Amino acid sequence: MTDRYDAPNVEHMDLPEWLQAAVPEELEDAKIAGGGTHPPTESVRLNGPPGTGKTTQQALRLAYLIEEEDLDPEEDITLVTYRRALANEVETRLKKWGVLSEDVDLKYWTTIHAACNRANNVLDGDFKNDGGRLGPAVTGREKYVFCAKELGIQYKAGLPWEDARGELLLDTFSWLRNNLLDPADRSDVRKAPQYDNLKDKWPGVSVPTLWGEYQDWKDDHGFLDFHELLEAGVVGELPPTDVVVIDEYHDVTPLMAKVSERWIEAADTVIVAGDPLQVVNSYAGADPRFFTQRLDHLPEVLLGKSWRVPEEHWHAASRMLSTEFPAPPVERDGHGKIIPYNSPIFAHDSHTGEWTQLPGESIPGSPAAIWVEHIDGEADRSMLILVRTQQQAIGVSRALDKAGIIHDAQDDVGGWDDRRVSLYDAMRKLDRVPRDYAHDTHHGIERYGSNGDGTQKDPGRIRLIPEEAATLLEHTPVRTLEIDSDRRDRLVSRIRDDETPMRVEDLNDEYVSPTFWERFTGASASVSNLIKAGELEDHDLEALRRALSRNDGLCSGLSKTRVLTIHASKGSEATDVVLYDGITSRISREMERSQRTKENEARTWYVALTRASERLHLMFGGFDWMQPHLPQNLPQIAASRSGHAVATDGGETR
């Protein structure tokens, strides 16, 4: 393989004085990478290895264009990425620097799907079907209805790591369209990676026939798939093209690339940011060549210093990458720790779907134990727990729930959602209300203390924000209310629609009975009085109870502790990353016969090993259905190459 980093050096550009004064102190000495050779008015590809500041460089170039070239961010600029949060990062920085006003309406700073839709008005209107709100976009609910009512099959399997006929079929449709292939063409269908599994689950299945039925069903109801938004972008109206910025280009599928290339051709100035060595979803059609070859007419600027990844972590990552690719010549910033552990066991019963063993907080090397030692009480620290599969992520999330640790997780693997958080905060607030509040609003007020002016705090003034009030009422038994269930439902809808906060005295005056205060002012002890209302499982209630027992304050957000698969972690970072070793037997078999799979796996672990800014906790073992992948001596290799001793073992826990 040739070393694609043997490109001529580029000169950087000093920030204009006004921009230097606007950026935070840590960026005062920053430069616009490659700006001396390729100024912000010219098109570039920003090749950004982990932690090298792709977002910052995009923001600096955009700031220059908006201020120096008098471009209108609303009318002249399109900024798209794979995930909306990444577009928000650039917007947030430019607002902090005073380049964007707080009320700016950035219609085309969004995901590439949304930009296509806004340019072409593909999804419009409010569609209903069978008395329920369905469409116009095809999401999980619409897919469920199609599979159940039209095909008589199951859409989702009972367990997240199992496959059902419906999901395999619809994933096959989606993969084919996103890879510019035709589900009506049998030869194209055979190229879909889901097809063999679909045939095993559904002998005799005819994908072309079912594709026709699916298209007819969508046409009858006016529904559209998300890939159809991109297809409209291939032939339809263009978004603003004075400046086009496309981030995370290593994530694009062939259909996304086709849309992007059309916009790039039409644009005056282009900024494409990505890292071809962070392509980890080649199974979806992503390919480094979209960045390295299809856009090779754009000058490439390598961002040459990682501001996040410590020396030791970089050597561990480059060791895993080097099996298939040379590591980019990136300068590292400082030193970090790699702490190896023998992970305690996570045990799961595949027949019942239950976790039979989850390591608790008292066990060294458990997720909760690491969290307590390194994160709890540390305001400037965060934890990202990474695993290779969703099944592992579910186990780790359950272990955190067991310890009462509030955390975020990707869809379908657990974690805390808005409903859990709203209930937690509502019940935490109600814990400050006396049980006999309805009978004597003054008794027990001393639990509040004083306001500092000789007056006592009034529990009646405690305010639940709209979602807290609405969610709590949804899960409150009618027998503790002064209103019936129909009126309760209308009240919940009104609170959400009007975004009306609700004070304790408001609830007491009109909506709840004295029994309500007896049942719902005991924090963790009150959880058993909640009803599930079709939205909560027993596990959710237990997680809520344990979190209320562990924590005192309101939930301050979910970003401090997250559980993700490696594939979902691109763009994420934390001071502490807990990375579980292991690949599935299927991946292991595919690596033996597929060079593409070997390359994808090398990039995957390169991404995983470069997410931490301070400590990397390497977990060996823990899931007996996974096969070892990382070298056991990886910490020693990294320490040796960086000239530092390896951190002590996290503990023998088996």
TrEMBL record:
Name by which UniProt lists this protein: DNA 3'-5' helicase
Keyword Protein biosynthesis in annotation: no
Gene Ontology molecular function: any one: ATP binding
Biological process according to GO: recombinational repair
Reaction catalysis annotation: ATP + H2O = ADP + phosphate + H(+); Couples ATP hydrolysis with the unwinding of duplex DNA by translocating in the 3'-5' direction
Keyword Transferase appears in the UniProt entry: no
Entry superkingdom: Archaea
Region (Disordered): 31-53
Organism this protein belongs to: Natrarchaeobius chitinivorans
Annotated family: Belongs to the helicase family. UvrD subfamily.
Domain called UvrD-like helicase ATP-binding: residue spans: 27-310
Keywords: ATP-binding, DNA-binding, Helicase, Hydrolase, Isomerase, Nucleotide-binding
Positions bound to ATP: G48, P49, P50, G51, T52, G53, K54, T55
Enzyme superclass (EC): isomerase
